[in-house]
Write a structure and sequence with these properties.
145 residues, alpha+beta, PH-domain like, 2 domains, seven-stranded antiparallel sheet, 2 helices, 7 strands, globular, disordered C terminus, transmembrane, DUF2550 domain-containing protein, DUF2550, transmembrane helix
Length: 145
Amino acid sequence: MLVLEWIGIGILILLAFVATLFIRRAVMAGSGTIRLNLRVSTMLDGRGWSPGFGRFAGDELRFYRMFSLAIRPKRRLSRDGLVVERRRRPEGQELMSIPADWVILRCLSHQAPVEIAMAKTTVTGFMSWLEAAPPGAVSSFLATH
C-alpha cells in the first residue's frame, strides 16, 4: 500500500508540473510577447544575464525567465519614467550568452537602472511602445545629457 501512495504522489507532482508548463505557455502565447535577456546581476563584468520573454501588458513590460516554472513575472518595467540611456553591442563575456547581432539597451527607471538585450528588430517595437505613452507621461526614448 505504501508503494501505491508514493506512485500516486509522484503522479500528482508530475501533473502539477505539466499543468504549470501549460499555464505558463498560455501566458506567453498571447500577443505582445518578445524574446529578450535581462541583466539580473552586475557583480561580474559581462555576466548576470537571464534569458526569457517579455510581455507587453498596458504600460508594463513584464519579464518572465525562460528556465523558471513561476507564473508571475520576475521583473516589471513601467513605461512611465522608463528612459533608454544608451545602446551598445554585446562584447567580451556577453557574447557567450547574447547573440552578436542583438542590441543591449541601458535603461533608467524609477526603480533602478536596468540592462535589457534584444534583437535589432525587437528594439524598433520596444522603442515604439516607449514613445506611445499617454500625453504627459515621461517616456522619452533617448535620454539627453
